[in-house]
Amino acid sequence: MRPLDPRLLRHARAARGHVAVTAALGVLTAVLVVVQALLLADAIATVAVEGGGWPEIRDETALLVAVLVGRAGISWAQERFGHRAATAVIGQLRLQVVEHVSALGRAAPGEAGVLDGTGAGSLVTLVTRGLDALDGYLVRYLPQLLLAVTVTPGVLVVVAWQDGVSAVIIAVTLPLVPVFMVLVGLATRSAADRRLRTMRRLGTQVLDLVAGLPTLRALGRDRAQATRVREAGDAYRRATMGTLRSAFLSALVLETLTTISVALVAVGVGLRLVHGGIDLRTGLAVLVLAPEVYLPLRMVGLHYHASVDGLAAAAEAFTVLDREPAPTGRREAPDLRGHLIVLDDVSVTHRGRTAPTPHLLRMDVRPGRVHALTGPSGSGKSTACSVLLGLRRPDAGRVLLRRPDETTASSDGSLTPGHPDVDLTDVDLADLDPASWWRQVSWVPQRPPLVPGSLLDNVLLAAPEDATRAEVDTAAAETGLAEVVAALATGWDTPVGQGGVGLSAGQRQRVALTRALLSRAQLVILDEPTAHLDAATEGIVRATLLRLRDQGRTVVVVAHRASLVELADDVTTLGPVGDADPAAGDAAQPSAGVASRATAGPGRPR
Amino acid sequence: MSTADREPAASRWRLPRTAPPLLRALAALRPAPGRVVLAVVTGTLALGCAVGLMATSAWLISRAAEHPPVIELSVAVVATRAFGIGRGALRYAERLVSHDVALRGVVAIRVRLYQRLVDADPAVVAGLRRGDLLARVGADVDALADVVVRSVLPFAVAALTGTVAATLLALALPVAGPVMVVGLVVAGVAAPLLAATAARRSELDAAGARSATSAEALALVESLAELTVAGAVPDRLRRLESLDHRLARRLDRAAAPAALGAGLATLATGAVSLVCLVTGAVAVAAGDLAPVMLAVVVLAPVAVAEAVVPLPAAAVGLVRAHAAAVRVMDLLDAAPAAHAPEDSLGTVPDTGSADTGSARTTSPGGTSRSATGLRAEGLYCGWPGGPPVLRGIDLDVSPGRRVAVVGPSGAGKTTLLLTLAGLLPPLSGRVTLDGIPLHLLDPSALRTTVNLTAEDAHVFGTTVRQNLLLAGPGLRDPELLAALARAGLGPWLSELPRGLDTVLGSGGTDLSGGERRRLLLARALLVHAEVLLLDEPAEHLDPVTADTLLRDVLTAGPAVVVVTHRVSPLVATDEVLLIEDGAVGCRGRHHELLRTSARYRESWQVEQGACHGSRHAPASRRSRAPAR
After folding, report:
1. Comparing C-alpha atoms, which of B111, B331, B152 is closest to residue A235?
2. Are residues B283 and B390 both part of a single domain?
3. Fewest Cβ atoms nearer than 10 Å: which of A45, B151, B183, B212?
4. B274 neighbourhood in chain A, CB within 8 Å
5. pLDDT digits (tens, 9 = 90+) for A98-107
6. Do B176 and B308 fall into the same domain?
7. Is residue B357 part of a domain?
8. Which band of pLDDT confidence, cut at 50, 70 and 90, is reported for residue B132?
9. Which residue range forms the structural domain that includes residue B222?
10. What's the pTM?
11. Facing B542 at nearest CB: one of A206, A378, A604
12. ipTM topping 0.90
């Protein structure tokens, strides 16, 4: 990544101001550095050569005080505004990344490829701690970089004006700094890479032993391995020192070149002074200015490492920001109360697998009924839910919304087949505006999320704006969440989520069920709501299901337990899949054993 | 045998527990005084070169302006060049020495931490999450090393450099010495203090805002799909934005003193030069200072100021490392186990080896020893200080018995196994091995008699052989191969290009779930324990693989206790305990429980239905009828 990525300026408005202010301060610094050097040289020469005293240098001193105050002010401003700008830039980038990821997610949040190139794990790191590393880059590195392009040439020009020979010496040695640093880098790179790998491996060895301590203890080997910890630690130290010996070489080159250059300038000036080529005033000015030419370069080298992490995080952020969201359908979703949801030979192949799960799944979800989805683990029940939710596009097959009269024309007389104003064609879920679809869908996932905020905030997460407290209380009473709330000292206001109180899996489940009851969405999808739950919670899930059906909602529930399956009006059983274990007998069956038997039962009296 | 006894150097750096944690943690790095002095001296010499370069150049130029014979300048010319070359080399040496000091400290403290963890009560270690423990031993210790290199040594170097420079300056111009001291104290003490205040403030004030922002961003990214479906994303984004603004305001307020410090440092170091200029001019006029020395006393302080440049960052480093030091010292101070090895009465023989002098062996040769096996009576288990998780457990694991423990997750099954293995003390009741309570037995021998393989047992990042040899260092390859074959890993091993020498990833990351479980089983088999305790040996495996593995496990050891959530393979057990509501809900043989326990039967039916689909799924078929 480039030292100053234009994307940073494009994406983070705060960065533009920061760069402008920093550059201005850099120019001002250059001016003050030069003025200070000339004043100091003048004052010293006045006293040392011309025999002047305090009265003769009073004016210079006063000006020097002013310059000093100015430089102190710049130091203050750089630190003050640097941090402020850095915080703003980091905040802006964080918000943009999260915003953009959610925009990418609007297209297909469950799609495995959405976060390609970053991965959800590193994305989490990026938006939590990763971007904070930009602070070092913005506050330390970038100002020095800007000083290197303002102070270094500016001061060099002044040196040339004062003493051409010294300027030539500096101009010749200056390019040597980057050249030698690159050469050293190239010469040591392969060795450094190798050493770095060894170092990392040895570094993890000690931690590996600590991570496995309970295991070592269980094997009665914990004491014996203490010597291994020391050996691995010593090997790590030796490897690290080897790496550092070459890593510090570039710093050695940088410092040696800059100080030798200053020495060369000083000796040259001194020898020419003897012969009267130049005067003391000029000589001293050049002596003071020469290190100032190199200083920004040295600082850039010094702060380079502080900037690397930040730049890497920024690059990662730009990778996310540069991704275009996939196009989504625009069509408004039809009212689900009057539509069947038809999974038409849906197959999804997971990454790294060959056999699709589910494979050629067919099922009809009828409005107002409870539809159970069963089958062994790994048969694709959760994936079927994702497809139904519109979170994942099927690799084959479609999800269609169909007017019931097309399939069971006799059962519903409200529509006249063939009526010209009625759209009788199927609507593909892929053509719908996802937001309009999700307005009619409520989802109780396996691990319901908690967002930072109060328990009430969490329950109201998907609720319509006009949800009343009475509705909340009724819903909570039905899901048993009311009991949980009653047991909490601060009741509904209790903070949950990260930093709040932890809720057990069962309590989370109750929050999610309450959410579903409050949502008023027509289609409610529950993914394994009874997995790992006790009998009491299971009873609550059953009661909630019945309540949802009484409200006329369509429910799709992934169910393992017979007690839940019993409750369903329709059942689809997914077959086992051969992908995991070739020994599974059913794998050999045609259509991978998917037995979709969504039978329209006699139907409940309604 | 305490840790201190093993390490003769302990007393030299021992600090009382009331000392600040960071100081104690730095002492715990056991830095060798010689190396520390070397680092400080080379650092001072490196800075001295910079000062010397400026001072000799200033003198050289001033003297040259008086047009002396060139020969008079030759010493200064050579010195100037020498200082120019020496600076880089000395700085390089200083960097290496200081990193060496820090790294040696890291090794020393890690070894001590490891020994502490070994000696500590298992409950102390188990109370920490693995991630937390690794962060303490890893990142926190690295943070301490960083403090040595970036904070402690720079302060020492600055102090030494400042003292020497002020002394030399005072020799030339008496008043300049104290002036420099004042300037350096302002720039090197006051400014860092302000920076540290800012850092502390930012940690105190902004920490809450920072974690709130992080939590919000985390919730958004992690639960994106759920929040998107719920239509809650726009709301959460607005919340994140306002949290971010709050964080920015707090950080900005906190940063104010640091900026003040930066300005102050610039002012103080510049003022030293100015005061030297004015007093120098007066001294020159009075004849107290040679005119050629004026440039030296004015310009040398500019170079000395370089010593205090890294100090504000160094002070911030000290503040930041405080928390790491507290965490590391917490571990180092962890109380050793209540039942330390030397307190134990008898020693249980390592049954796999030749050592047979034992409390259990009533006569030599072991023919008539009372091998009643592992028994629990009226056992209450739970974490020390906590409530009992399981109550009133009686268990007989006499030789040859195969017992399974099933129940919902969180029911305390793992706690039961830890207690049976002697890794947790019973809250009440007792666990005995051949009649002797576990806590009276030598731990290491006990481990090889009663061996626990935890659900999250570790696969080490080393070769397959080394992983297996942890079961017994003297094992030979044929034994290892036999164990792998018994664990069903024969085909897997033959596929490995380097066989037993194949290096595995730490945590078994490059193994499939089934391979990892089987490798752990092979290792457990090699212990040749009399009782194998296995926690969820088939968790996260697909049903067919899980059941095959469980069946293998049940025939693996002389006596086996297995915790599992799959009940189908339990046909092969002598007894099944079904844990419900913190106690044994019911117990008996597999087919008895199928009759007597509805819950057990249902678990079994779910597995059958899931495993064999339509063919044996009466439950699923029946349910297809409408509920009412």
Report:
1. B111
2. no
3. B212
4. 61, 64-65, 68
5. 888 888 876 5
6. yes
7. no
8. confident
9. 3-332
10. 0.77
11. A378
12. no
